[in-house]
């Protein structure tokens, strides 16, 4: 079982373990023991996915909450409900037919059918939905998250039945401060916001991008134990440049497939920024302690918005910062797998295909990690820079480039150096993968070196073609690493089968979307690791939330990356610890700054455990009952 799935399962088990630490428990109320106070009764409860327990309402609760007679009389246990859902709804339904018709057990139609069934449950009973998601996370994460979520976003306008989350559009300018009060929850801990401009590797999907915010927040609940009543998916609709989603004036009366978003091109420049500014002010006005995760903003805005807000608001960009943490952890893991010392990391030759928000985030973090290992001086940063070979759609990036992006500039190869190595501006991936020759200064001989790592964040499916993989073969590394990190599945730079069969059995392979391990024959298995920011963002969010840190610092992100091999709880605890050390922690709920500062490591872990939501039906109390 991979770490992520383990992490989701443990998130619920750990809460139980927390019960044993009786003496430490007194400092915080366990999240799962809080009763839920309602201001509704009767049928309204059954229609509310937050509070509905369906057939599991006990008879006393049915009486107290005035739902007696509104449900069939047989009271079911939670487990009976789950069994019923899994065996009757999922197994018995048409899915069975679909499954047998699909040779490898997976097809878009099947995945979408499963998503629809889960989504309907999400709409009527959230507790049960998350119980099933956590219990069967390995099976259902690829449905509610990558890769199926990509397909869901592409079809969202057609799939839309009930609203989930909030929409702020360019038409809402000046209204957002009051609109935020339309959301029914007084406390929101986590917002995931997108403008739909770069959904996975699928491009501009406009308003349909809300699906990605929903999918990410599902993982916050499943893996980080964030209470589902305190998460808010958001879509900021500033229009779309995807012509297929814009109204065709000739077809406006045949609007069956009409997109649900604003029918205009994307706002740009100051107009765009003013919308995002207004949104940020509005959500932090109503929920001053919320954390905002920016997701799938096109590169041109991702880093601008990060720089604009990161020192003022509790926010981070998952594609830039979360991906960087996961990739650096993977790169360090590759060094370990080569049975080298960590200090050898700054000697790795790393080829990165893709210089967008994700690629640049990885490059900066990997360079920073190398430089720290080399002494953190200016010279260390310079030296680290020469380990990277960055290509974009126009090939190898060198100082000869004229239209080079500010963030990419530090990674442009020196022209002279490139010539000495027999390469050139715009060299192809095959050329770069073939050899990064260098001249030995003491004898003036040319030495052939092949890259140690081939890392793709290009959104171009199949970019690591047979020719590229052939060229990379025979890498000077004992365990060359191939990270095909683009999403969803069809955008992966190569499949694990291609990588293992062409480059060899000893490679280390990771992909952004899940792939099955490869049977290499003779009982050997080629492991396909998942290199996806889903390993990091739940822990970053939970740690920031519970520390009450004012902002999310580089140090907190670094701490998260260093703990990625462990579970979210540990990632969150590392983030809290760092926030305390940087004097950023301001506390959360009953836990004040001072109390936080006094906690030892074990107590911080317990604080995290106690604050993780667990998918058990809470005791429901109608608010008037409190005064009785
Ligand atoms: N695995 C993860 O956790 C993770 C995280 C973030 C993003 N991603 C994926 O990374 C991909 C890129 O995201 P982004 O925001 O950086 O997108 P982007 O569109 O901003 O960047 C894509 C980059 O790839 C370059 N590119 C295009 N064709 C190329 C080619 N033939 N050779 C080399 N480079 C080429 C482009 O010039 C650009 O620099 C997406 O598919 C996204 O799903 C994965
Ligand atoms: O959403 C994912 O699966 C990872 C990442 O955030 C992406 O944009 O591809
Ligand atoms: Mg993303």
Automatic annotation (TrEMBL):
One of its GO terms (cellular component) is mitochondrion. The active site is at 145 (proton donor), 216 (proton acceptor). Keywords: Metal-binding, Oxidoreductase. A divalent metal cation binds at residues 295-296, 319. Gene3D superfamilies: Malic enzyme, N-terminal domain, NAD(P)-binding Rossmann-like Domain. GO terms for biological process: malate metabolic process. Divalent metal cations. Prefers magnesium or manganese. Its cofactor is Mn(2+); Mg(2+). (S)-malate binds at residues 198, 487, 532. The keyword Metal-binding applies. GO terms for molecular function: malate dehydrogenase (decarboxylating) (NAD+) activity; metal ion binding; NAD binding. Residues 320-580 form the Malic enzyme NAD-binding domain. PROSITE patterns: MALIC_ENZYMES (PS00331). Residues 122-310 form the Malic enzyme N-terminal domain. Pfam families: malic, Malic_M. InterPro entries: Aminoacid_DH-like_N_sf, Malic_enzyme_CS, Malic_N_dom, Malic_N_dom_sf, Malic_NAD-bd, Malic_OxRdtase, NAD(P)-bd_dom_sf. Belongs to the malic enzymes family. This is Malic enzyme. It comes from Artemisia annua (Sweet wormwood). The lineage of its organism: Eukaryota, Viridiplantae, Streptophyta, Embryophyta, Tracheophyta.
């Amino acid at each position: 079982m991979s770490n992520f799935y383990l992490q989701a399962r443990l998130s619920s088990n750990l809460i139980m373990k927390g019960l044993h630490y009786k003496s430490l428990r007194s400092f915080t109320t366990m999240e799962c023991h809080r009763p839920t106070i309602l201001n509704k009764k009767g049928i309204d409860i059954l229609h509310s996915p937050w509070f509905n327990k369906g057939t599991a309402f006990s008879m006393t609760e049915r009486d107290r909450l005035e739902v007696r007679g509104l449900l069939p009389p047989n009271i079911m246990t939670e487990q009976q409900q789950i069994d019923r859902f899994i065996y009757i709804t999922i197994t018995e339904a048409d899915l069975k037919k679909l499954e047998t018709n699909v040779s490898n057990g997976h097809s878009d139609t099947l995945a979408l059918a499963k998503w629809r069934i889960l989504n309907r449950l999400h709409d009527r009973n959230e507790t049960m939905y998350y119980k099933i998601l956590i219990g069967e996370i390995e099976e259902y994460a690829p449905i509610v998250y990558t890769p199926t979520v990509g397909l869901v976003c592409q079809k969202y306008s057609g799939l839309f039945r009930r609203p989930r989350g909030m929409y702020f559009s360019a038409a809402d300018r000046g209204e957002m401060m009051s609109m935020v009060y339309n959301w029914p929850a007084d406390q929101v801990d986590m917002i995931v916001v997108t403008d739909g401009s770069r959904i996975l590797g699928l491009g501009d999907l406009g308003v349909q991008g809300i699906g990605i915010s929903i999918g990410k927040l599902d993982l916050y609940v499943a893996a980080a134990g964030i209470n589902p009543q305190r998460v808010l998916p958001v879509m900021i609709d500033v229009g779309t440049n995807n012509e297929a989603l814009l109204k065709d004036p000739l077809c406006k009366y045949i609007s069956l497939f009409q997109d649900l978003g604003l029918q205009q091109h994307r706002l740009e420049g100051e107009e765009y920024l003013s919308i995002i500014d207004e949104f940020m002010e509005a959500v932090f006005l109503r929920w001053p302690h919320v954390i905002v995760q920016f997701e799938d903003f096109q590169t041109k805005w991702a880093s601008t918005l990060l720089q604009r807000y990161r020192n003022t608001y509790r926010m981070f960009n998952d594609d830039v910062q979360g991906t960087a943490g996961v990739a650096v952890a993977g790169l360090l893991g590759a060094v370990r797998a080569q049975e080298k010392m960590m200090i050898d990391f700054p000697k790795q030759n790393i080829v990165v295909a893709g210089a967008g928000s994700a690629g640049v985030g990885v490059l900066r973090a990997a360079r920073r990690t190398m430089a720290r290992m080399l002494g953190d001086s200016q010279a260390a940063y310079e030296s680290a820079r020469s380990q990277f070979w960055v290509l974009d759609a126009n090939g190898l990036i060198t100082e000869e480039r004229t239209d080079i992006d500010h963030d990419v500039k530090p990674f442009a190869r020196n022209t002279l150096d490139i010539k000495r190595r027999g390469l050139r501006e715009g060299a192809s991936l095959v050329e770069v993968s073939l050899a990064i020759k260098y001249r030995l200064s003491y004898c003036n001989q040319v030495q052939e070196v092949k890259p140690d790592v081939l890392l793709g964040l290009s959104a171009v499916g199949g970019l690591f073609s047979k020719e590229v993989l052939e060229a990379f073969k025979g890498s000077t590394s004992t365990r060359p690493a191939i990270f095909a990190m683009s999403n969803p599945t069809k955008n992966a730079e190569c499949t694990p089968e291609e990588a293992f069969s062409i480059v060899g059995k000893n490679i280390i392979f990771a992909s952004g979307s899940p792939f099955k391990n490869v049977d290499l024959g003779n009982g050997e298995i080629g492991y396909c690791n998942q290199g996806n920011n889903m390993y990091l963002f739940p822990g970053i969010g939970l740690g920031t939330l519970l520390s009450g840190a004012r902002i999310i610092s580089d140090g907190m992100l670094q701490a998260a990356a260093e703990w990625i091999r462990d579970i979210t709880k540990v990632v969150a605890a590392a983030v809290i610890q760092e926030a305390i050390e940087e004097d950023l922690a301001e506390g959360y709920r009953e836990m004040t700054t001072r109390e936080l500062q006094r906690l030892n490591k074990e107590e911080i872990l317990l604080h995290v455990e106690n604050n993780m939501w667990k998918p058990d039906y809470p005791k429901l109390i109608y608010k008037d009952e409190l005064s009785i």
